[in-house]
Write the C-alpha cells for this entry.
Amino acid sequence: MANRLVIQGGKKLSGTVTIDGAKNSAVALIPAAIMADSEVVLEGLPNISDVQTLYQIIGELGGSVRYDENQAIIDPSEIVDMPLPNGNVKKLRASYYLMGALLGKFKKAVVGLPGGCYLGPRPIDQHIKGFEALGATVTNEQGAIYLRAEKLRGARIYLDVVSVGATINIMLAAVLAEGKTVIENAAKEPEIIDVATLLNNMGANIKGAGTDTIRIQGVEKLSGCRHAIIPDRIEAGTYMIIAAAAGDGVKIQNVIPDHLEGITAKLSEMGVPIEVADDSICVGEAEHLSKVDVKTYAYPGFATDLQQPMTALLTQAEGSGIVTDTVYSDRFKQIAELERMGGKFKQNGRSVVIYGKTPLKGTKVTATDLRAGAALIIAGLVAEGTTEILEIEHIERGYGNIVEKLTALGADIRKESDEPSIS
Ligand code: EPU
C-alpha cells in the first residue's frame, strides 16, 4: 500500500513544536543496549520506523523490547549471536551498528550490508579497518559482512575519514576488548557523546567522546541502566527551516541550542529573527529573506542533513545562494523535484546554485530520500496549490508524527493511502 502526503500550501504556521529524541542517537543506542547483560531503559526514543525496525531485529536475536511513548525497556539477557544476513537489516543504514555490538559481545557477527538513503557511495571501509585493528577477521560473503575474532584486543586506530558511523562502531566493539583502544581523528557529533554516555552508564570506560581522540579502556562486562536520549538536532533544524519558510512565530522546544549553532547562524544571516532560550528556540518571520551560501562539514560544521531543506528555503530568498556538500557526493536528489515545482537551480558536482526568489507551484513529487522528503515538505508548505509527495516511507524513517506536528502548527497536510481496490 503506497502512502503519500498531500499539502495545501500557503498557510502561515505558528505555535509550539516539541522535538523528539535524536534518530541518529537512537539507532546506535539500541544496538549498544544489547551489549548489556540486563535491562536497559532508554527514555525519549523517537516514534520513527528506523527505531521500530531495530526493535524487530532485537526480537530476531532473541531479546525483547517493551515500549510506550516515553521509554523502551530492552531486555538483552536472552540475546544470541543469530546471523542477520538479510531481512530487516537491509531497511536501514544504521544496522551496521549491530556489527560492532555483536562483535563486541559475542566475538562474532553476520550482518547484511546496510540499506538507508542513497547519497552517493557510502563505504564502510573505516568501520572494517577498526574491527580488523581490534583483531577481527572481516569478510564480505554475498552481500553480508562476516566478523570473527578469537579475542578482541585494544588498538590505536586513526580514521582516514571523519566518520560518525565508524567512530561509534569501533567504540562499540572496543568497550569489551582487552586493553586500551585509542580512536584518532574521531567524529565529534553530539550523538557520539550520547552513545558513550550510555555505554559508560552500562559500565564501560570511554574518555574523550566529543573530541577527536577517544580513549577506551576495555571492561569485562556491561550491565543495564537508564538513559535519556538527547533531542534530535536535525529534526529541530528542519522545523527551524520550516518556520523560516512558512511561519510567523514558531517555538521549537526540547532542543540543545549549542547543537544548532550552524543553522541558527545561517538563518540569522538570512534575516530571520531568532531568540534562543535554555532549551527552546523561537523563529520569527523575516521581513524578507536574503540569500546565503552554505557549505556542509562534519560537526560542528553545518550539518549535511540540513543542506537539502536549506535548498528549498533558498528558493524563497532574494538572490543566488550556493549550497556545497563536502560530506556526500550525491545528496541533491531533491533538486530535480523542486525544479518540477518551479524552483530554479544549477548543479555542478557537489554544489548547487539556487536562484531566488521563485514562486513555487504544487505538483506531484517524490521523496527520494529522508532529507529530500523534508525539503519537499518545506516547498509544499510555501507553494501555491496542492503538493503530493510520494514514497513517504523515507520521511517516516526519520520524522516522527510529522503530520500531527505540522497540523498543530496550522499546516494543511494529510496522509493518504492508496487502499487496494476491492472489486
Ligand atoms: N565514509 C567513508 N568510509 C567509511 C565511513 C564513511 O568513506 O568507512 C565517508 C562517507 O561516505 C561520507 C563521510 O565519510 O562521505 C561521512 O560519513 P559518516 O560515516 O560520518 O556517515 P554515516 O555514519 O553513514 C551518519 C548519519 C547520517 C549523516 C552522517 C553525517 C546515521 C545513521 N546516519 O551517517 O544521517 O548524514 O552521519 O553526519 O547516524 C540522515 O539522518 O539523513 C543521515 C543520512
